[in-house]
């Protein structure tokens, strides 16, 4: 079994890796949230623009204004599609970072478990040694009392 200092070193390294993975996970989750907000903003803007177009269309619209609207809506739809791709990528990264964090945490916990077992084994050895000393002391006391 690894010595106590080796286990402490491994636990420390695993804790650092877990902390770093947690920071990366936090950044990835923030990126997902930002991408979702950006997408919602684009969708809301598209809906507002379409509503204004409908109102303008009801009041009459020139062919050039109609073409401009169509071109702008095409660009807006492309921006929305691009943002949806950004969101998909951010979610995949978030899942990957979550998996990495969970792996680091499992590793850290396994080292902690090993340390606990080592401590327990050391305590058992110490308890046996103490019991042996107590038995020897009691035997000596009984021998000298005769």
Series of H and E elements: HH
User: Whole-number average pLDDT?
Assistant: 91
- Point out poorly predicted stretches: none
- What fraction strand? under 5%
Q: What is the SS-derived class?
A: mainly alpha
Oligomerization state of this entry?
single chain
Biggest sheet overview: none
User: How many whole angstroms does the radius of gyration measure?
Assistant: 34 Å
Number of helix segments? 2
Helix fraction?
over 70%
Spatial gap, N to C terminus: 46 Å
Would you count the extended β strands for me? 0
Envelope shape? rod-shaped
Quick gist of this model?
With 146 residues, this protein is mainly α. It has helices spanning 4-59, 63-145. It is built from two helices and no strands.
Polypeptide structure, described:
By secondary structure, the protein is an all-alpha fold. The protein is 95% helix and 0% strand. The protein contains 2 helices and no strands. Helix 1 (4-59) runs antiparallel to helix 2. The radius of gyration is 34 Å and the shape is rod-shaped.
Tell me the layout of helices and strands.
Layout: H1 4-59, H2 63-145
Helix pairs in contact: 1-2
Which key features would you list for this structure?
mainly alpha, single chain, 146 residues
């Amino acid at each position: 079994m690894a010595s106590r200092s080796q286990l402490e070193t491994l636990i420390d390294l695993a804790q650092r890796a877990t902390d770093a993975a947690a920071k990366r996970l936090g950044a990835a989750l923030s990126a997902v949230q930002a991408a979702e907000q950006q997408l919602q903003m684009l969708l809301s803007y598209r809906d507002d623009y379409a509503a204004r177009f409908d109102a303008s269309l009801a009041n009459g619209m020139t062919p050039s204004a109609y073409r401009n609207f169509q071109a702008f809506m095409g660009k807006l739809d492309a921006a929305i599609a691009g943002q949806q791709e950004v969101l998909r990528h951010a979610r995949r990264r978030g899942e990957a970072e979550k998996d990495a964090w969970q792996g680091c945490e499992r590793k850290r916990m396994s080292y902690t478990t090993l340390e606990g077992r080592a401590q327990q084994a050391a305590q058992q050895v110490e308890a046996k040694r103490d019991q042996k000393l107590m038995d020897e002391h009691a035997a000596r006391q009984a021998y000298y009392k005769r």
